[in-house]
Amino acid sequence: MKTRRLSEREGDSSDKGLSRRQWLTGVTAVAAAAVVPATEAVGQTGASRPHRIDTHHHYTGDWTASRAIEGMDQNGIATAILSRPGIPVSDSEKARKLARDTNDHGAQLVRDYPGRFGLFASLPLFDVEGSLREIAYAFDVLKADGACLVTSYGNVGGTGTKWAGDPAFAPVFDELNRRKAVVFIHPTTPMYFNDDFRLQSGSTRGVSGVNETALENQFDTARGVVSLIINGTVMRCPDIRFIFCHGGGALLSLHERLNHLLGEDRPARTDGSYHSRYIPNGFDAEIRKLYFDLVRVANRANLALLTELLPPERLLFGSDYPPVPISETASQLSSLHLDGKLLRGIERDNALALFPRFKA
Question: CA 130, CA 128: separation in Å to the nearest integer?
């Protein structure tokens, strides 16, 4: 595998002119309508029939269905679950409209290309009432396959950054739990504020010219997971199936320390906060309830750690297309010569447990 500079923006020729931030915040305009009708066959150039299920595939910017399907066929991908992370924090009515337009467009793609696409509906999590309305519409009307959130939301209501497990968002997760939803949570670069709530630079911004997402996204995944666990969301909502990106980012490297600090061997604090109260079985037990895709971690070193800590059925195939070439994870997995059962689980079977409608 070729080594790339961390500061280099990843992608292929289809996303020229778009920054990584535009991909991750979802602030670009709704993607152009698909240019190939559903009835038009797309030539398969791969060596085998497409079978993989891609749980990390973005439809934004200049993405088109025809280009995506061509890449999917070339890389053995039968179905991609579409997501557009990060409805930006702004006026609630504008955010609700953007979420609705985004989800309507995604649902139309699912209808136009049966079996090739699924949909994670975008929610404006910082707007609890708006999110509850959009959940009802997305699941009851659009028949979405799940919901899409990001790990943190900046300056929510003038109170600073809130991570996904903040108690303010509990009603949204309770409703998603009632619906037994799959929830895809994508990392973002958190916003930092001083005491006057003036925006400050993030902890890794400008470090030796490294693109801030190269490090900060990985740590925000860890922050998002810890937030959901220590605030009790994962335990309180056992019927939500959470999917996180990039093998959990920095999370699994920190698991031993987190397990020690937050596990069952630690007494409850005098104020009654989280140690034994929220994590009676230890931090690792809660991690094992989550799913992780293998974008940028499909190598022997990372897989050794992931398979040591997690049940193999919690690992999923993802491409992170278009910011990452659609072929990357597929080619890396193929080169590892994994056990057949493990490979089948990663590429398809584990996702089918979450999305059984794609079994046909």
Answer: 5
* DSSP SS3 for 145: coil
What does the alpha-carbon distance between residue 249 and residue 231 come to, in Å, rounded to a whole number?
20
The token pair at 300 is: 């022997």
**Model confidence pLDDT, tens digit, residues 98-130:** 999 999 999 999 999 999 999 999 999 999 999
Peptide bond into 312 cis (omega under 30): no
3-class DSSP state of 183: strand
- 192: closest CA among 172, 211, 212, 208? 212
Q: What are the Cα distances from residue 9, in Å, to 28, 138, 214, 217?
A: 17, 32, 9, 14
What pairing do the DSSP bridges indicate for beta strands 315-316 and 291-293? parallel
Query: Judging by beta carbons within 10 Å of its beta carbon (0-12, 13-18, 19+), is residue 192 exposed, middle or buried?
Result: middle
Is residue 78 within 8 A of residue 53, CB to CB? The reply is yes
User: Contact, 124 vs 84, CB < 8 A?
Assistant: no
CATH superfamily entry for domain 151-293? Metal-dependent hydrolases (3.20.20.140)
Neighbouring-strand partners of residue 120: 146
Greatest CA span in the chain, whole angstroms?
65
Burial of 153 (0-12, 13-18, 19+ CB in 10 A): buried
Residue type, 230: I
Two tokens, residue 274: 């989280």
Is 153 within 8 Å of 125 (Cβ atoms)?
A: yes
Extract the tokens encoding 208: 């030796």
Q: Three-state SS for 80?
A: strand
pLDDT digits (tens, 9 = 90+) for 35-92: 333 323 333 333 468 999 999 999 998 899 999 999 999 999 999 999 999 887 668 8
Residue ranges of domains in the chain: 151-293
**Whole-angstrom distance, CA of residue 278 vs CA of residue 58:** 34
The Cα 148–Cα 125 span in angstroms is 9
CB 134 within 8 A of CB 106: no
